[in-house]
Amino acid sequence: MNKEKIMTQFGRSAEAYATSKVHAKGDSLTRLLTLTTPQPDWYVLDVATGAGHTAFTFAPYVAGVVATDLTPRMLQVTREQAVERGVTNLVVAQADAEALPFKSEVFHLVTCRIAAHHFGEIGRFLQESARVLRPHGYLAIVDNIVPGSRLRGKKARLQREAGQYINAFEKLRDPSHHRCLSLSEWEDAIAAAGFQLQHQETMTKQIEFSSWAARMHVSPKDQIRLKAMLLQAPEAVQQFLTPHITGDRITFQLTEAILVMQKP
Amino acid sequence: MSETKDLPISPELLEILRCPLAVQSDKYGEDPGRLELVHGCWLVCADTGMKYPIRDGIPVMLIEEGEKWRDTPIEDLPVPPPPA
After folding, report:
1. What is the pLDDT of residues B35-63, one digit of tens each?
2. Which helix (H) or strand (E) holds A89?
């Protein structure tokens, strides 16, 4: 049922994502290019492309890009942008990240940026990415992460609880949000799918509360709930989100992980 | 990998697109789920019988969508495919 929520949520938010500063100009786009060094003969698959920001970033450097999304409205926006920008080596298809409609071993690189937290089964997505990648091909993922720990003890438990709290906060803002993983959960899932993790890094991004909530059409009542969740959060959550109030303006930070892995 | 005005789908995309159900199975040979373009707006998988519409130029490659048209004979597929 989460897939229906995704289509509903992003069908009505497609244009907002095409112009969102966080999604269009994130530093992670530049980092992805640097870390993956795309080649002119490469074919790239961008899974859950949204308004196509990652697909457009890679298109000038490779032979072709296929951009997929679960939401047709997002793909229409991507196509319109391709025509406007004169990009001719980008095609789109509506597809489920957990059941990719492609021949095995065709892509040199699969990318997925700020979307995996919508997927119901990360393991399935990783397996499907591995299937469509050529031997030694790369999978590059950018997604928000939450605190977490594999360890036992009070501190580790508080970290996991903080992760659950932040996921509940995100889900109240966007019902199609499934779950952000912690870095350790990512490491375990990547290893289980048979990938070799080549590089990982994290970066924080400053979020302005009002535009963040508006992009998902949050009701005034839920905006009040979200503010309360943010400003009255437990200490471990406050340390992670670092909320700040300046006059009427509320800001906080989210943490993004960039994970680049290789198929053996 | 560009789309041309004369074709409903890029030939290069058609070359790599596969039925997402067939590719999960090992009973259809080495390259399962190949698709044939019919009526200019449907992609039909001979392995599974799944039929995927191309709506507004976008192939809809979702298993639930292909399943919906699985039992419809090719000659009865609506042209153009109805809206979702």
Report:
1. 999 999 999 999 999 999 999 999 999 99
2. none
Of B10, B56, B61, the CB nearest to A95: B61
A145/A167 Cα distance (integer angstroms): 9
Helix (H, G, I), strand (E, B) or coil at A104: coil
Q: How far is Cα A6 from Cα A217, in angstroms, rounded to an integer?
A: 14
Q: Taking a C-beta distance cutoff of 8 angstroms, is the pair A72, B53 a contact? A: no
Say if A76 is an interface residue toward chain B (CB within 8 Å). Answer: yes
A64 touches chain B (CB under 8 A): yes
A93, A100, A131: residue with CB nearest B58: A93
pTM of the model: 0.90
Nearest to A150 by CA among A200, A188, A122, A189: A188
Structure-block tokens of residue B44: 């039909």
In A1-30, the residues whose Cβ lies within 8 Å of chain B are none
Phi, psi of A154 (to 5 degrees): -65, -45
How many residues are listed for chain B in this entry? 84
> What CA–CA distance (Å, rounded) separates A143 from A112?
8
Structure tokens at A220: 């005034």
The pLDDT tens digits of the residues spanning A90-125 come to: 999 999 999 999 999 999 999 999 999 999 999 999
Interchain contact, A99 vs B12, CB within 8 Å: no
B14 at A interface, C-beta within 8 A: no
Query: What are the residue ranges spanned by the domains of chain B?
Result: 2-76
Report ipTM for this prediction. 0.94
Residue B34 — left, alpha, or beta (φ > 0 → left; ψ -120 to 50 → alpha)?
Answer: beta
